Amino acid sequence: MYAAEDLLLHTNAEVTLIDRLPVAGGLVRHGVAPDHPSTKKIGESFARFHDHPRTRMRLGVEIGEDLSVEEVAAHHDAVVYAVGASDARSIGIPGEQLAGSVAATSLVSWYNAHPDADPDAGAAVLAAERVVVVGNGNVALDVARLLVADPDALAATDIAGPALEALRNGRVREVVLLGRRGPEHAAYTASELLALRHLPNVDLVVDDHDARIGATIDGAAPSERAAVLAEVARERVDWSRAPGEGRRRIVLRFHSAPVAALGEDAVRAVRTTGPGAEVDVPARALVRAVGYRGTPPAGLPFDEDSGTVPHEAGRVADRPGTYVVGWIKRGPSGGIGANRVCAAETIGTLLADAVAGRLPEPRGSARAFARLVRRRARRTVNARGLAAIHRVELAAGAREGRSRVKLTTAEALFAASRRGRLPLGR
User: Fold this and answer.
1) 281 vs 87, 98, 290, 324, CA distance in Å?
2) Can you tell me the distance from the alpha carbon of 415 to that of 389, in angstroms, rounded to the nearest whole number?
3) What pTM did the predictor assign?
4) CA distances from 195 to 36, 146, 392 (A)
5) Which phi and psi angles does 292 have, rounded to 5°?
6) What is the C-alpha to C-alpha distance for residues 137 and 148, in angstroms, rounded to an integer?
7) What is d(CA 2, CA 23) in angstroms, rounded to the nearest whole number?
8) What DSSP string runs through 362-379?
């Protein structure tokens, strides 16, 4: 959407927005934690371009299935791929695939109502009293926070309805966050860490199992994150004790990498490194939050090592008129602000190519492309259909006293888009 914004505000280009899903939003809708409404507000800024006079929206259209890369290119001067990174990275330990071991990407999709989400993604995790989360980034903290948060506090958000109900019946009492390195190398932001400190009726504890941890926190150079950690209680956690019946808690365990998930048919414990010895942390669920990874976009070159499309300043190698932006361009790092800068670089490259006459001449018109979409895609959603989806979700939210009740399946989204929708045009 930053790329589209640049083109619509600074050029006379017409922009076609294509997405595999029947609803727009990407990570703003399906990745940002439901209890972060201020972060989601960027979606309102993007929405003003959905029905821009020079925008044509084709949602529910999959490149590589409904249309080929070549067919899209044949009807446009340039094509920008902003397909993100949807796969989960592996942690590469024995037992990683046991029942009860879940990728954080699956949980995030589940509680954010992604149409492709496994409806049972949270079942094994919520059945556990203690959950081990591997990772020290913002996604790991999001997962930990939501697992122990008061469901009543989440009820006003746009969290998926089935996830909210499952959280109400969940058994999680303790979440253990494993960080391979020390607190100085944690990837989460100070604001996300501070949010853990202020969770009502939830304790935040640093496992003081390694002398380096306290020394690092107490001796850290002044920073927001160091200041937050300095105020967090420290104790030597006794893992032989079951999670208590009192307040829920989140345990930060640094200098502790997972070695194996233990159990015959399902996770029963996670073996971790420790000073001088390995330590088994009893847990019935393991959440792998070590990052996202890009998947090969149909018809484009792909670097398996980096999980990205090879490019030069956004220009795809050996593909005139083809560009990438976002995580499929640079890998899964950086937030919303980084994406703005990334988009500016790619669009700058695209415009330079246009001025230099390096863009291939399209063979088909916008009208011909609309006809092609109608023939190939069984169902599509345009800007009017997307507006209808939003009306349905907001109305349902108003009835339940929530900000929005998201539709959780593609079928429901397509059905909502047809309520009051005009024929395919925009």
Assistant:
1) 27, 16, 19, 42
2) 9
3) 0.93
4) 10, 11, 31
5) -100, 165
6) 17
7) 17
8) PSS-HHHHHHHHHHH-SS
Do residues 138 and 181 make contact, with C-beta atoms less than 8 angstroms apart? no
Tell me which CATH code domain 87-292 carries: 3.50.50.60
Helix, strand or coil for residue 92?
coil
Name the strand (E) or helix (H) holding 324: strand 322-324
The separation between the first and the last C-alpha atoms of the chain, rounded to the nearest angstrom, is: 17
Is the separation of the CB atoms in 325 and 79 below 8 Å? no
Domain ranges of the chain: 2-86+294-417, 87-292
Determine the Cα–Cα distance for residues 29 and 10; give it in Å rounded to an integer: 26
> What CA–CA distance (Å, rounded) separates 145 from 192?
9
Rounded Cα gap, residues 377 and 328, in angstroms: 24
The answer to whether residues 115 and 410 touch, using CB atoms and an 8 Å cutoff, is yes
Q: Which residues pair with 202 in a beta bridge?
A: 248
The answer to whether domain 2-86+294-417 has CATH 3.40.50.720 is: yes
**What is the chain's pLDDT, residue by residue, as a tens digit (426 residues)?**
999 999 999 999 999 999 999 999 999 999 999 999 999 999 999 999 999 999 999 999 999 999 999 999 999 999 999 999 999 999 999 999 999 999 999 999 999 999 999 999 999 999 999 999 999 999 999 999 999 999 999 999 999 999 999 999 999 999 999 999 999 889 998 999 999 999 999 999 999 999 999 888 888 766 677 788 999 999 999 999 999 777 999 999 999 999 999 999 999 999 999 888 899 999 999 999 999 999 999 999 999 999 999 999 999 999 999 999 999 999 998 877 899 999 999 999 999 999 999 999 999 999 999 999 999 998 999 999 999 999 999 999 999 999 999 999 999 999 999 974 434 433
Evaluate whether 146 touches 33 at the Cβ level (below 8 Å): yes
DSSP for 143-188, written as a single string? HHHHHHS-HHHHTTS---HHHHHHHHT----EEEEE-SS-GGG--S
| Joined tokens for residue 274 | 């420790």
3-state helix, strand and coil shares in percent for the chain, rounded to the nearest 5: 35, 20, 45
